[in-house]
Amino acid sequence: MKEFKVTYFFDEQHYIRRFIHVESQEMAEQLIQSERDQYISFTDSRGIYHELNTKNVRVIQISEYHRKK
Q: Does 20 map to a domain?
């Protein structure tokens, strides 16, 4: 299982980041596309709960993430 960093940008200064665990980049893209124009909820790495309307997002970036141990 790989870890991917997903960043939702609202404008140049405001964004929310989440981490997902899926098998491949393609599966990460499919997940993000399936959530388009919906409310999603998740808890970030700091333990903060988020509810996000993906309809209001301007840009979404997905990249594989390699945690430093």
A: yes
- How far apart CA 59 and CA 69 sit, in angstroms, is 30
Tens of pLDDT, residue by residue over 31-52, are 999 999 999 999 988 899 999 9
**23 in a structural domain:** yes
Number of helical (H) and strand (E) elements in the chain, helices listed first: 1, 5
- Tell me: pLDDT of 69 over 80: no
Residue 69 lies in a domain: no
**Range list of β-strands (E), the chain:** 2-9, 15-22, 39-43, 49-53, 59-64
